[in-house]
Amino acid sequence: MIIIFAVFLLTLLVITAIGIVRAENLFVAVMLTSIFSLIMAANFFILDAADVALTEAAIGAGVTTVIFLGALSLTAEREKKVDVSRGLAICVVVATALVLIYATFDKPRLGDPEAPVHQHVAPWYLSETETLIGIPNVVTAVLGSYRAYDTLGEVFVVLAACIGVLFLFSARREKKNDNTLNSLTSPKSIGLQHHFIPRVVGRILLPFIILFGLYVQFHGEYGPGGGFQAGAILATGIILFALLEGEQRALAAIPSRALLWMVAGGAMLYSLVGVVGLLLGGNFLDYSVLSTDPVFGQQIGIILIELGVGITVCGALLSIFHAFAARENY
Amino acid sequence: MELLGYYNYWVFAIVLMIGFYAVIVSNNLIKKLLGLAIFQSAVFLMYITMDKVEGGTAPIIQAGVTDQIYSNPLPQVLILTAIVVGVSTTALGLAIVVRIKEAYGTIEEDEILAQDRPS
Amino acid sequence: MMEQIIDIISWIMLTSGGFFVLIGGIGALRLPNFYTRMHAASVTDTMGTFLILGGVILQAGFTLAAIKLLAILAFLLLTSPTASYALASAAILSGLKPETKAMLDEGAKAQ
Fold first, then answer.
1. How many CB pairs below 8 A link A and C?
2. What is the model's pTM?
3. Domain boundaries, chain C
4. Contact call for A93 and B21, based on CB within 8 A
5. Per CATH, the architecture of B2-52+69-116 is what?
6. How far is B24 from A86, CA to CA, in rounded Å?
7. Which ipTM score applies to this complex?
């Protein structure tokens, strides 16, 4: 029964992708991309990847759409129609697609337990995590402990992207001549204040969103969750507040300086855990030496680095959003 | 079940090529970035397809239940990293597009190239 | 006996929930105007969600999953009508006027 559902979702994926390419109005294309990410998250869930589905829904359907809309409001809204023959491009694309489809006949069938990908490291992870680390969620164990070095690199990539966006937007553009309105009272920064219903509902929902983000952060070891999803959910909640009450009030709640401290502080916390492991006699990012009981040390290490990851991701996404939102007032 | 396995890979190939087509053919810079986002999502689909084991469930070890088959956790970890890196590069790309718009006044590729060409 | 009654009720709720979602989808495609299409889409948000989630809650019994489903139902019922309201007021503020019967009659007479 689930096969029909899976086939239907995959077909919907192809149709949405074609819709995105053919949409001329860029707003429509961005909305279709958000729907595409949500369908992709449903597909991931059918394929037993619960953590990845949560991340794709939170980051792909949530944050990416907001950043795209922020960029759209600063640039054009429609695509210009160009009358050029696309024959060569279509031929190349169709030929490559056929070659790829021909190559996929060599792959193992879906769900084969004898496939090579299930043979070498994965069974060891699944069997040894209970004794070595002691947490139920194997994905968090692999992400936080066995492959912690990769996750450190990823946190630094988020930090670098945030720094890059802030650098790109730090140059002021030429002031327009009729910029006489004080930016605090101009309509762009008061948000949706003349809408009564979304503001009330937003105020009711915001504590629950933040509570849910914290739940996902600290329950990453027992169920799907972890630092990345929690950071995205927290950032989305505060972006909702900024949309409803105006960007100035969101900046008054969490000022830019605090955001910069969050972004750098999370990465610093992560590296600090690694260095403390060095100072206590183990390797870099070795958590077993953090406590007298190595299993408990592993759990302490994973909680600390997930906290660092969550803080950095939340700060970075919020900084990027504020950078895009504030660009109009320059 | 066999057709479904192949269907996953075929959808991956088709969506990959649709995204690639959007990147090479679009004149608009934001459309190119949207095509890139579709391209990345298709690659994620292929990796996650590889992690499913028949009769398995999500790799969260349930206490007290022995001989339960779990799906492979390793591709999920790789794709978790890839999704976050993807959103970072998309944000950076969009910031560059906004700056291009401010410098050239347009985000259509042919107009930008016409402005750059020494006349 | 109790399980059979619960099964039958949850079957009825799930099927009728799917039926309402289908009606919402057909309405969103076939109705003429933006505001009428939004009316159809909001059927999916409220009636369809309530029936489908109610059917699943009956199947889940008295476990933790049922409480989580109740929370999801509460949040969906709170946010979906707000989203419809925000969409409709954005449409009014950007100048899209709902066509009244008088305007349609004028248009028909002018042709």
1. 17
2. 0.90
3. 2-110
4. yes
5. Orthogonal Bundle (1.10)
6. 10
7. 0.93
